[in-house]
Amino acid sequence: xxxxxxxxxxxxxxxxxxxxxxxxxxxxxxxxxxxxxxxxxxxxxxxxxxxxxxxxxxxxxxxxxxxxxxxxxxxxxxxxxxxxxxxxxxxxxxxxxxxxxxxxxxxxxxxxxxxxxxxxxxxxxxxxxxxxxxx
Length: 135
Known about the structure:
It is a single chain. This protein is mainly alpha-helical. It has a domain at 97-135. It contains 4 helices and no strands. The longest helix has 36 residues, at 99-134. The model has no long low-confidence stretch (mean pLDDT 96).
């Protein structure tokens, strides 16, 4: 679980709103897995994938529009996390509902990655885009 106060802020309010939606979904997924609710866990995994795809493609479109030089590096991180999410979802759905797989991924990988990603790549991207729109 992640508290809203832990969420780093970037220079673009729309990105901050999307990141808040991320943590809401992540927290819902975490709660469903901790309560060992198979249907809810499956639903929140799928919703997180759909939201992440929209989130990442929106960021990538903005970076492309403003010719953000490290777009390929940023996109590679997005692609890697989407692949992980898809793999976790597939394994969970095909199995008997391995809740420890989901909770260990969310707490041990996804949340730390998201916070670091926002503090580094998203912060730089947002500042670049904001500055580019002022030019």
